[in-house]
Amino acid sequence: MAGLIGIGLTGVLSHQAALNTTGNNITNANTPGYSRQEVQFETQEGQRTGAGTIGSGVSIENIRRLANEYLVQQVREDSTLYGEQETLNSELTRLDNLLGGENTGLSNALNNFFASLQNAAEDPTSLPQRQLVLSEAQQIVNRFQGLNQEFIQQRESVKTQMEQGVKDANTLLKSIAELNLAISESPGIAQGKMPNELLDKRDEKLRQLAELVNIKVSPADGSQVNVSLTNGQSLVVGSNAAQFGTRESAEDPTRLEFTLSNGGRTLNVNEQISGGKLGGLLRFDNEALKPAFDELGRIAIALSATMNHQHEIGMDLEGDLGGLFFKDINSEAVQRSRVIANSNNQVPQNGQLAVEITDSAKLAAGSYTLQFSGDGGSFELIDKATGETVNQGRLPDPVQSEISMPGFNIRIEGGTFNAGDKYLIQPSRNAAEAIGLVVDREEDLAFASPVRASTGDQNIGTGAIDQGTMLNVKNPFTNSLLPGFQTSGELSNGPLTVSFASGGPTGLTFTVTDSSGTAIGAANQPYTAGQVNELFSEDPASGAAYQGFQFRVTGQPAVGDTFTIDYNTNGVSDNRNAELLAALGTANTLNNGNQSFTEGYAGLVEDIGVATRQSQLDMDAGKTLLEQSTNQREAVSGVNLDEEAGKLIQYQAAYNASAQVMSVAQDLFNTLLQSFR
Fold first, then answer.
1. H/E/C letters for each residue in 580-636?
2. Less packed terminus of the chain by CB within 10 Å, N or C?
3. What is the pTM of this model?
4. Distance (Å, rounded) from C-alpha 494 to C-alpha 484?
């Protein structure tokens, strides 16, 4: 009887455990990371008799955790991919909406500004029209600065998310290390009895960590796992966890860089961070936000440079030369702000560098690293976008020199440079923030041209002179006023007289003389009828032959005919410079003369829009992959409530039957006792 009772008891106890396990599955059906558990039954060793072996019941061999490590790893990898794409798309969408918005973008402000110039050119003496130009110009400044401020806010938001992501990652790393320890110390692990709930918790923590950064997980002794970055940098080894951190970037103090501290050592791991939310934030900053800063700045520089030049060679309502329209793009402070010394440079850290914009049309949007090597005299300039060396050489002794690039020069002004020293060169990064309106009075707008030409009253030929083209009022080599414009309100060496005489290979020559009768350029230059004859040189290196303007004569002047070139005194109704200023709105002033301002900005909007659309497609694909891998894992590890309900009935029936075996044993025992009464 005892044997039968024992057999029934093993059945009752085993199926009670099975019922408990099934109930646990059902109640954890919605627990993230939970893996279904299954009871594995085993026949107990039977009793040997002469008639054979009599069974002694059932026991539980193991409670198995249904998990496929390959599928678990696949979910982690897809979580990393989706985490990166989701973060990248979220930030790109915000940037795209900002740049492309009708009220937040730059396009309307540019169009309105140049439209106001065109309207003012139709009535250059109208003060209300001039005031409208100033108002629209201020709107341009506000839009540039507003966009730049929005960029800064998004940059700070990215930094905040990076800091929070690091905190979350550290919490997960600590939890994984603690779970490693708990698993290794779990009773029965040496016999293969795994602590299923701890394994589930650890896998879930690993999945959450994978959402933040790309990791590699490898098994270790004692059922522990080691976690590392993809390059092998350890994050968790056994029960020891490293710690992520952020700090101000040595290269660019406006950015953060990731660090990893372990065993008293702190390493920069910025280059090793990929995938996940943290990788997505880095990608957005490097691939979208920094280029947006640079491109917006490039447009601001080109607008300022071209408007300033054209305005400076005009004449205002009071007869004075026009000055700067926007702030000087090459002020000393601005030039120095374009260079950032790496904080890890060797002492004495006294290198003095500046960046001068030489041609905004040739200027490309981008940043560079100027790196010194050898004895500190050798340098190479590396494009940060491509990693390619775009210039290299040696500094002279003394070091004062220039490194010439398309659109800008890097000026080495002095200091000591050591091997390994680095400088971040940002020709256009802060230009949108620095732009500002200089003209503040309607009368100061230079809508007229400062020079004009007139035909001699006694001329008898058919020669005609145009109204001239202004080239510059300053010597581009010295940045000082040309001799003819050094006296306010007049042509210092004027009026200039163009006179014609017989002679030369064509039978007619011309000479340009100043007010003292001194020839400007060569005397008796040949005049060719039937074609355009230029009176001056357009090369600033030509000495007196370069006057900062050009006049052209056509037709057939007669011997003795003259033309006079003088200052445009009282030329308040002259709109020539206003028309040239308005024409800059459609002129190709960017990308080596292939893009206008609006086209340049449209290119920026398009680039961000394409990147946003691609990130949306990548995110959708990543989401699909994650759903597929999650479903595959759930097919193996997930709880099917219908299946578990069926098992409940099965185990309940077996439990009842085992109890009935014990009841039969009791009845037999009672019957046996009755036989002895």
1. HHHHCCCCCCECCCCECHHHHHHHHHHHHHHHHHHHHHHHHHHHHHHHHHHHHHHHH
2. C
3. 0.88
4. 7
474 secondary structure, DSSP code: B
Spatial separation of the C-alpha atoms in residues 429 and 437, rounded to whole Å: 19
**Could you tell me which residues come within 8 angstroms of residue 215 by beta carbon, excluding any fewer than 6 positions away?**
76, 80, 206, 209, 227, 228, 229, 230, 235
Return the SS3 of 215. strand
Task: Report yes or no: 35 and 65 within 8 Å, Cβ to Cβ.
Answer: yes
Residues constituting the chain = 677
Distance between CA 90 and CA 36 in Å, rounded?
35
Q: Are 599 and 59 in contact (CB under 8 A)?
A: no
Residues 6 or more apart in contact with residue 305 via CB below 8 angstroms: 329, 357, 360
- Residue position matching structure tokens 């966890």: 241
Please, are residues 473 and 450 in contact by the beta-carbon 8 Å criterion? Answer: yes
CA 445 to chain centre: 37
Cα three-residue angle 650-67-10, rounded to 5 degrees: 35
Rounded to whole angstroms, what are the CA distances from 561 to 454, 498, 502? Answer: 12, 8, 11
10 Å CB burial of residue 130 (0-12, 13-18, 19+) is buried
Whether the CA torsion 540, 546, 548, 554 is positive or negative: it is negative
Please give the backbone phi and psi of residue 531, each rounded to the nearest 5 degrees, phi first: -145, 170
Token duo for residue 665 = 């044993």
The secondary structure of 317-364 as a DSSP string is TTSPBP--SB--TT-HHHHHHTEEE-TTPPTT---EEEEEE--TTTPP
C-alpha distances (whole Å) from 669 to each of 56, 72, 254 are: 18, 54, 87
- CA 204, 205, 210, 214 dihedral sign is negative
What pLDDT score was predicted for residue 677? 64
Looking at residue 297, what is its pLDDT?
Answer: 96
Task: Name which of 261, 259, 262, 263 is nearest 271 in CA terms.
Answer: 259
Question: DSSP 3-state assignment of 230?
Answer: coil
Element (H, E) at 217: strand 215-219
The rounded distance, in Å, linking the Cα atoms of 583 and 469 is 14
- Burial label for 270, CB within 10 Å (0-12, 13-18, 19+), is middle
Q: What is the DSSP letter of 664?
A: H
Whole-number Å distance between alpha carbons of 40 and 298: 70
Residue stretches of the chain with pLDDT short of 70: 1-2, 677
Q: Of 201, 202, 209, 274, nearest to 235 (Cα)?
A: 209
DSSP readout, 494-548?
PPEEEEEEE-STTSEEEEEE-TTS-BSSSSSEE--TTS-EE-S---GGGGGG--S
Listed residue (573, 586, 580) closest to 129, CA to CA: 573
Alpha-carbon radius of gyration of the chain: 41
